[in-house]
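Extended Data, panel c. Modelled sequence:
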Amino acid sequence: MGHDPDWQDAGTRREAFYTNLGPGHYTFQVAARNSSGVWNEKGASVQFDIAPAWYQTLWFRLAAIALVFGILVSAYLLRVRELAARIELRVSERMSERLRISRELHDTVLQALQGLVLSFSTLTTRVAPDVQSDMERFLDEAESLTVTGRDRIKEMRGYFPENADIATEIQAIVSGLFGEHQCQVTIKTNGASAPLSTIAHDDTLWIAREALRNACQHAHAKHLNIEVSFTPSEFQMLIQDDGVGLEPDAFLAHQRGHFGLASMRERANMIGGRLNVSSARGRGTAISLMLPARIAYATPQSWFRRLFSRRVN
């Protein structure tokens, strides 16, 4: 196996010693000369094998590589699980706070408003007809406000209508902001639509509303593209315009009392998402939100289920 690169002169020794020979097949060759200096041209040789030790076998090396790889993967998965647990705890705390606020709103403000509506309803028959019509109109508005308040409390507690769809709600925001605007807005949905969790639903809508408001008021864009993507691994939302772009110091606007971008990033971070903002002067702005599936969706999303739903659709 090439242990000796050249012939070795052994002198008058009749023994040869080799140490640290690795496992494998070897051929030992020897040539001698007589006292007259004539060499034996043919020489002699012997072949032998050295079996590998257990730690030199191929299976041991493969097992060692697999063990190291398994340790690295396990460490990574443990770290991911730890981060996910922190995010879920943070989301759970926010949900608990929302439930507390919803209970207080229902037990105080909403009940008091309903009581006032009932009280004023009994007075409508005691006033002049022209005043009565005005009072009834105001009472209808108050009743409408009560209904809106109940709906909002239901949303805070995680009860959304069965037909609730994040893309549809974003479309409603666009209609309200760009109704008389010359900007052409395009909304695209990728993948099978899935209901979002309460926290993800509210924060996504808030971020979308803030980004769209900025695009409407400051971008002076001619085209606005909105893309909502549902994948088994994450939920994505992209809002991109071809407007004037952000100022170089836009990310420091919170120091001047403008917290739009800072609040969007804070909301994304609080629910374990990622918010990316890219902009160039005169080349528009792109705002993307990415939420992991375990945080974004109200129900777990399996690869088989999403693949099957795509084929059916």
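The chain has a mean pLDDT of 79. This feature is highlighted in the accompanying rendering.
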